[in-house]
Amino acid sequence: MPTTRSRTEGRDSLGRRGEDVAADYLTTLGYRIVARNWRCRAGEIDLIARIEHEGRSKIIFCEVKTRAGLGYGSPLEAITYAKRQRLRQLAGVWLSSTGEHADDLRMDAIGVLLLPGQQPQVRHVPGIDR
């Protein structure tokens, strides 16, 4: 008897693939991935990265959205004002709970489009909290 996957399982798998693509993308830019799918009671941060440049460190908190098509719009359209505010709150919780610090903090959005038979398309928007 064939097994069927639930819609949630499909979304989770797609989301993981998108986060993998986003993490690889950031790594190629020189970022070091500090945490993936960090969770607390208030929610989840998809990716947390750090970059060192000219003796200064920056921690980047990333919201990653992945789509397998454009039927519901581009991936970045799903990152609402409320999601940006939640990311800011979660960043504060993460900093408090880990004791990590940096010279600068930034909230980024990464949209990943995974179309069948094509290379992943990545759109990175730095500084969505400004």
From TrEMBL:
<dbReference type="GO" id="GO:0003676">
    <property type="term" value="F:nucleic acid binding"/>
</dbReference>
<protein>
    <recommendedName>
        <fullName>UPF0102 protein SAMN04489812_0339</fullName>
    </recommendedName>
</protein>
<dbReference type="InterPro" id="IPR011856">
    <property type="entry name" value="tRNA_endonuc-like_dom_sf"/>
</dbReference>
<dbReference type="InterPro" id="IPR003509">
    <property type="entry name" value="UPF0102_YraN-like"/>
</dbReference>
<dbReference type="InterPro" id="IPR011335">
    <property type="entry name" value="Restrct_endonuc-II-like"/>
</dbReference>
<dbReference type="Pfam" id="PF02021">
    <property type="entry name" value="UPF0102"/>
</dbReference>
<keyword id="KW-0540">Nuclease</keyword>
<comment type="similarity">
    <text>Belongs to the UPF0102 family.</text>
</comment>
<keyword id="KW-0255">Endonuclease</keyword>
<dbReference type="GO" id="GO:0004519">
    <property type="term" value="F:endonuclease activity"/>
</dbReference>
<keyword id="KW-0378">Hydrolase</keyword>
